[in-house]
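hiii, so i know i said id send this last week but things got crazy w the move. better late than never?? heres the sequnce for the chain we talked about at the cafe, plus the structure i predicted for it. fair warning i was half asleep when i ran it
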Amino acid sequence: MPGKAKADLKKGKKGAAKPYTAETETKNPLLVARPKNFAVGNDLPPKRDVSRFVRWPKYVTRQRQKRVLERRLKVPPSLNQFRLTLDKSTKAELFKLLAKYHPESRKEKAERLAKAAEAKKADPKAKAAAAPVALRYGIQQVTRMIEEKKAKMVVIAHDVDPIEIVVWLPALCRAQGVPYCIVKGKAALGKLVGMKTCTAVALDNIKSEDNGKFSQLKDAVCSAFNDKADEIKKNWGGLMMGRKGRKQN
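okay and structure toks below
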């Protein structure tokens, strides 16, 4: 056998390769392995999503529990209608129009009344300047305008809490023939009137240059809400199962 191996080497045949081991690998002397130690007081562990283990405040957990309950339970039509909000494009156009009717601030009102008082002092027969056309807000004022049929359009927030404050407002608008819509959400309506939140706003007058735009929005709102009264009354909500319940079914 040794003679045969020598004869193979003379003929140019290579011997069998050595098996791979860690020692055979060429190591770079500049790259030194430093294994991490995750014990207390040593290396920091890698970042990971720990939101599942966070102890959230009570108000956050209650909000999430309420949302889950609203999806699981059977929701009557009077409450389910507040989930059917105005579409995004129409809402954008509506809010552009409503932004033009921002109520005057206290400072602006004081300046207007001061000028009216000076004009009255100079000429007792002079007529006082009328208040600017602006949005009416607040549930009492909006309700009064609907009952008197002075409101030309009513915009209601979808996330009022408690919902009993506005749950009857769509039915009153339909009974009085007033166009109404439900939009997201109370914070957006609050910005229009200079407050944090607002339940509902109403328009009682429109400037002449906005009549065309207002008529288009009125038709869109009526077709989406007022004309679908029978469908809204029959449309129940809720009964949405979670992932585990859907898999079991």
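btw The chain has a mean pLDDT of 85. thought thatd interest u
miss u guys!!
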